[in-house]
Design goal:
- By secondary structure, the chain is mainly α.
- It has one domain.
- It contains 13 helices and two strands.
- It has helices at residues 2-25, 30-51, 63-83, 89-96, 99-110, 117-134, 136-139, 145-173, 179-201, 212-239, 248-264, 270-286, 288-305; strands at residues 306-312, 318-324.
- β1 and β2 form a beta hairpin.
- The longest helix is centred in the middle third of the chain and has 29 residues, at 145-173.
- Residues 301-327 have low confidence and may be disordered.
């Protein structure tokens, strides 16, 4: 069940970038549609959790929820939705994978925490990947907002990294509260801020919400992108660990690029492909020590459950036979 839910989560997160692009291209105001998505998704999730008596209304008025919403939802998705007016969904997905690099840089240069050498190498590789990804804007006729959009997404990932680091403090402070309630509350705050910003900066036409493309995009992002996707994420965290589910960052961008090219006929070149793979490789390196620790922990746990004996297989080669240890 864990593998099935993990694959489903990766696919959902990989499709959200294209869903955003379809909605924006259909005429949805980027900031307003983002605000509706997160406010409604958060409201529905929080209402369900409150109905189950796992959260109270007073929890919504905590400053911690507001600050987390500013980082994880408002700053991250205001830039992403705006940028997808000019940047392909595949590029947006790959640039969004720079979040772990931003976390490492904030930890190292702002919080003065020591980082592994592999993390710094990963950051350098990631920066090279970003440059390779942006280079096509110099060589082909693309709107100048292409580069601005790319930079906006990276700025959004700084918000995401800050919100992620702060949310660790929040989760520790509210250990008795459901993580889904925490996520729902911050989505509501972020959604309200997005709507307020939209009312100040965008011209909202209600008929833009009436087309199949725009309405389908919004509903898909509310139900699957926010409610189902994030619920699967937290379910996986509760059943495995915080690291394993986050590896969607290595898989979903690839899904997003393929979908953008195949389904939406988005621009793709060999340099774009190299840039995307370079960024993903950098992201893996940034998390290398954590991933290695996870694998080592699993291996240690495996050894504690099974005892091993070497025996000769039918082909003459040595094979390992596992015997479950009784507890």
């Amino acid at each position: 069940m864990v593998i099935v839910n993990y694959v489903l989560m990766c696919f959902i997160f990989g499709t959200t970038f294209l869903a955003i692009k379809i909605g924006v291209d259909a005429g949805l105001p980027p900031l307003f549609s983002a605000g509706l998505r997160f406010f409604l998704a958060g409201l529905l999730l929080f209402s369900f959790i409150a109905w189950k008596d796992k959260a109270t209304i007073r929890f919504l008025f905590r400053k911690e929820m507001f600050l987390t919403g500013v980082g994880l939802t408002f700053g991250t998705f205001a830039t992403l939705y705006w940028a997808e007016q000019y940047v392909t969904s595949g590029i947006a997905a790959v640039l969004s994978a720079t979040g772990p690099m931003m976390i490492m840089m904030i930890q190292s240069f702002v919080l003065k925490q020591k980082a592994a050498g592999s993390s710094f190498i990963g950051c350098i590789i990631g920066v090279v990947g970003v440059m390779l990804l942006i280079l096509p804007s110099f060589s082909i006729e693309i709107s100048p907002f292409w580069m601005i959009g790319c930079i906006a997404i990276i700025v959004g990932e700084i918000f995401y990294a800050s919100g992620t680091l702060y949310s660790k403090h929040v989760i520790q402070k509210f250990q008795s509260t459901s993580p889904i309630a925490l996520n729902a509350a911050q989505m509501m705050h972020g959604g309200i801020l997005l709507i307020v910003l939209s009312l100040c900066t965008e011209k909202i036409q209600l008929d833009a919400f009436l087309s199949y493309a725009s309405l389908g995009s919004l509903l898909y992002l509310i139900v699957f992108g926010s409610m189902v996707g994030h619920s699967l994420y937290y379910w996986l965290v509760s059943r495995t660990n915080p690291i394993f589910p986050s590896t969607w960052l290595y898989i979903s961008p690839i899904i997003a690029v393929i979908l953008g090219v195949v389904v939406y006929d988005e621009y793709f070149s060999w340099m774009t492909g190299i840039g995307a793979l370079t960024i993903i490789a950098g992201t893996v390196l940034v998390n290398y020590e954590t991933i290695r620790g996870l694998l080592k922990g699993k291996l240690t746990n495996f050894h504690s459950i099974f005892s091993f004996t070497l025996m000769k297989g039918s082909g003459g080669n040595l094979v390992m036979k596992a015997k479950k240890v009784k507890r």
